[in-house]
Amino acid sequence: MSEATPVPSAAALAARAVDVALRDGAPIHVRPVRADDLPAVRAFLESLSADSRRLRFFTPAADLAAAARWAAEVDRHERDGLLALTGDGEIAGHAAWARYAPGADRAEVAFEVAETMRGRGLATILLAHLAFGARAQGIATFVAEVLPENHKMLGVFRESRLPLQVHSEPGVLTVEMPTAFTDEARERFRQRERLAAVAAMDAVLRPRSIVVVGASPDTGTIGGATFANLAAGGFNGALHAVNKRGRPIGAHACHRSLDDVPGELDLAVLAIPAADVLHVARQCGERGVRALAVLAAGFAEAGPDGAARQRELLATCRGAGMRLVGPNCLGVLNTDPAVRLDATFVPTHPPPGGIGLLSQSGGVGIALLEQARELGVGIATFASVGNKADLSGNDFIEWSEQDPRTRAILLYLESFGNPRKFARIARRVGAVKPIVAVKAGRTSAGARAASSHTGALLAGSELAVAALFRQAGVLRADTLGELFDLAALLERQPLPAGHRVAIVTNTGGPGILAADACQAAGLELPALPEPLRHELAAIVPRSAGLANPVDLLVDASPQAFAAAVEAIGRSDAVDAVIAVFVARPFARAEDVARALRGAAGALGGRLPLLSVFMTGDSVAGGGGSDPRGAPDATLPVFRYPEDAARALARAAEHASWRRTPHGRVPDFPGARADEASAIVASALAADRDGGWLDPLQTHDLLACHGLPLAPQRVVRSPTAAARAATELGGRVALKAISPGLLHKSDRGGVRLDLSGPTAVKRAAQRMREQLAAAGAPLEGWLVQAMAPSGIELLVGSTTDPVFGPVVACGLGGRAVELLRDVAVRLTPVTDRGARNMVRELGTYPLLEGYRGAPVVDVAALEQVVLRVSALVEAHPEVVELDCNPVVVHADGAVIVDARIRVAPVAPPAPTPALRR
After folding, report:
1. Is 189:128 a contact under the CB 8 Å cutoff?
2. From CA 812, how far away is CA 835, in angstroms rounded?
3. Does the keyword Signal apply (predicted)?
4. Per-residue pLDDT tens over the stretch 341-397
5. Which fold has domain 711-786?
6. Which fold has domain 494-659?
C-alpha cells in the first residue's frame, strides 16, 4: 500500500457521508459502504429486475451473493464503494470501483440504481462522489464496460461532462474517463444544483396545494391568522385546514387529521406547538408532502433540548424526502397572480412588485413587510427562513434568479450556512439581478485569540463578510432604511451607466446639500454642456441657475420640473438625475410628483431618476396619498438628499462591478504541490509546537509555491551562525528559533544588519543569554541575507471557521495591528482581486513613490498575494500563514519572515451537501 494514499481514517469516512439533493430537490443520503451492509446490499441486488441485472452483470443469472460480497467487503484502497440511502434506510443506489492491479492508477467502475429512483440524477451524484474518493486514493482513470444497449448508463457518463473515450469491442463498449473534474464538469454539477434548489423551492413558493395544520377560526392565533391570509389572498391552488376539533373555518371545511385531507399535498404549514411538530411531520412524510414550513419556536434557538428536537425534525424530513422551511419562521409569500400565496401570519399585505425579500429573523421580517407596505415597495416573494435547518438564503437566491417577476433581491442575514456557495451563487445572480443585504452581528465577542499578525488582524468574521460581499457583488446596506432606499431604486429604475449625476431643484440650499451628498458618496457632478444649457434656458424661468445643480427657483412649475429632467435625461451628459423638491405655495407636491413620474415614463429607462420630496409629511401624488405607495409608481422617492445620494452611489458601484471583468485565478505551473503536501503531512504527523512549522519547513513550503524568499541558513550554534554569515556574504540578519516565541523582535530575538562572522557570533551568544534569562531557551538561529531597502508589508492567510481561507494584504512591520491598514479577500484570489487589494490600502501611495520616495514593484507584491492564495487553496491544512514583513522594493519583493501553522481538516465534498 502506497504511503501517499493511506486508507481513509474513520473521520475521513464520516466526512464523506453527506445529504445531497436530487434533480427534483428531494434529499438523499450518500455514504461509504460498510461490511455490515452486506445483507442489505444483497437484498438490493435481488430487488433489481432481470433486465437490470443483465445490464449490470451482463447476465440475468449473476451470482448475487458473490456480487454483494464484492460490493460490501471493501478495503478502501484496492476497492471502495458508496451507497445512496433513502430517509428510511433503504438502498436506492450503489457505486463501486476496483483497481485493475494492486497500486494501479486505473480502476473499473460500476453502478446500480433502483428502478424507482431512475431519472432523478442519482447515478450522476454517485459518480461525482465516487470519483472524488478514488482520486484521493491515487486513481486517475475510471473504466466502465457497458452493453451497447445500456443507453441510460452511457447518458450518466456523458451528463457528468467528464471527457470520455469510448472504444467499441465485440458486444461491449469500454468507457474511460478521468477522476479529476474539468471546469465543464464542475459547472454541470452546479447547474444540477441550481435545478434541485429551484425544484425544492417550487414546492414552497409555487405550491399547487397547501394544508395548514393548526388552522383556526380565531385570527388571533398563528394558525388562524395564517389560514385567514391564505384564504383572503385567494390562493390559486387547493387549500386545506386541519384542526383537532374539525370545526369549519368560514366557508372552508376543516379536517380532524391529515389522513382525511384529499389529494396530493405540496406544502404543509405547521402552526402548532413545537412539542407536536415531530409527530405531525412524520404524518406529513407518510402522506407524501413535498415541503414543510414550521412556524413554531422552541428548536435550536431554545438551547440543547431544542437543538436535539430540530435535528430529529430534519432527520424526519430527510427520511420522507421532504424539504423544510424554518423552524421558528414567519412563513412564505408569493404575490404572483398565478399563485397568490400568503402563508404567513403577518397582518401586513405589501403591494405586488419586483423585490424578492428574505429574512432570517421573523421579527425583522414583520418590520420589513410593514416597511414595504408603507413605502410602496412591491414584493414579488418573501421567505422567512428562521433557523435555516434546511432551505436557506442560497436556495432562495437561486429560485429568485429564474423568477421573471423578481428584479432585485433583498436579504436580512444573521449567519451564513455555506458562505463560499453563497459567494458563487450571488456573483452569478448579481450579474443580472442586484442583491442587497443587511448582515447583522458585525461585532464578534467570541473572536479567537490569534497567534500571528494575520490572525490578529482577521480575528472575527466581519472582514471576511465584507470581503465576501465585495467579491460577490452584493450591495451591503448598513441599516434597514438603506435597504429599502436601494430597493425602491432598484425595483423602479435602471442601473446608472456611470457616476455622473445632475441635480434639479426648486431652491438653492437643498440643491447644495444634494451636491455635497453626491460628492461625499463618490458621485460626480459634471458641468452641463452648452447645447444642453441652451435647451434648458428655453424651458425654465429666465433667472434659473443652469449650472449643476440646476436651480429652477421657488416658483418652478411641475411642467418645468418634468421638462428639465427630460432634457437632461436625453442629453447623455449624465448617468442619473436627482430631482429635489421643497414645499412652496406655488406648486403642490402632488402635481410635481405626477409630473416627475411622467418624465420617468418618457425617458423609458434611459437612466435612473430619483426624487427627493422635502415636504415634512407624506408626499402626495396621483392615485394615492403617497407616490411611494401608488401601485403604478415608477419613481423612487426619498425624504432627504443624502438618502438618494447614498442609494444612487451604491447602485453605481454595483453597475461598475458588473462591467468590470472579475479576473481569473492564475495557474502556477512551476509549483511543486506534491512536495509541499509531503511537508504538510510530515508536520501534521509530528504534531509539535501547536502545529507551527519550524523555520526550515516554513522556508521549504513557501519555496514549493514559488514565493520569493531571502537566502538563509538554519544553524544550531554561534560558531555555525558565523560560518553561515560567511557563506551568505554581505550584511545579514540573525533571528532566534525558540518554541512559542512568536513575535521575536519584541523579545530581543532579532538582530539586523550584522556584518562579518565575528559580529554574528557575538550577537548569537548575547541573544542566547538574553532569551535564556527570559525563560525562552533557543533551539537555534536563522541567519538570513539582508533584504534590499523597501516598504514593509504583510501578506498572510487565516482560516475563518465559517468562511474558510481568507487572504490579507496590508501595511507590515511591528505596527501592523495598531494601524490595521489591510485589504481582505476570500480564496481563491483572482489577478484582478490581488490588484484591487493592493490599491485599496491607505498606504498604497507609498508604493507609487509618495513625496519623492522610490517607486516599488507593485506587480511583485500582487504575485506574492496570488501565490499565498494558491498555497492555502492547494493545502487547506495550512490554517494560518503570516509573511511579515514582505519587503517590496524597486526590483521585486522578498519575504524576510514567515510563520505557518497546520491542522487537520476535513476534505471538501465533491458536490454541495445539504444542511445536516
Report:
1. yes
2. 18
3. no
4. 999 999 988 999 999 999 998 899 999 999 999 888 999 999 999 999 999 999 999
5. Dna Ligase; domain 1 (3.30.1490)
6. Rossmann fold (3.40.50)
